[in-house]
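hey
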């Protein structure tokens, strides 16, 4: 079974950028749909973006469209989330998740989860 580890989170000023990485172990990583979800304090976990196994399809939430970009490098067993023009509403714990169904907007579509990485946007 694939295991996922997120990295790249931290404190960033409003208007800045952060690049998150989701590193996977296992030889079957390239077969999975992979997505990013986030959970802000007091809020439900929400969908951010997802990408198919062959990088042919991308789905991005309206709240981050035009600012966040998901991509994957199967040769490196890694999925990225480039986050630009960050604002305070982007403060959350960001989770990487893997599944097998498309689209991946529902939490139930993901059955392998990373531990999460905190992104805090300050002014």
């Amino acid at each position: 079974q694939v295991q996922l580890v997120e990295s790249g989170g931290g404190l960033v000023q409003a208007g800045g950028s952060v690049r998150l990485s989701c590193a996977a172990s296992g030889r079957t990583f390239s077969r999975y749909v992979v997505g990013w979800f986030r959970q802000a304090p007091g809020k439900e976990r929400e969908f951010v973006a997802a990408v198919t196994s062959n990088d042919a399809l991308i789905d991005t939430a309206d709240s981050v469209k035009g600012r966040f970009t998901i991509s994957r490098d199967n040769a490196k067993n890694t999925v990225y989330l480039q986050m630009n023009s960050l604002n305070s509403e982007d403060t959350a714990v960001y989770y990487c998740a893997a599944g097998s169904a498309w689209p991946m907007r529902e939490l139930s579509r993901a059955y392998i989860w990373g531990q999460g990485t905190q992104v805090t946007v300050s002014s």
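The first strand starts at residue 3 and ends at 7. The two ends are 41 Å apart (CA to CA).
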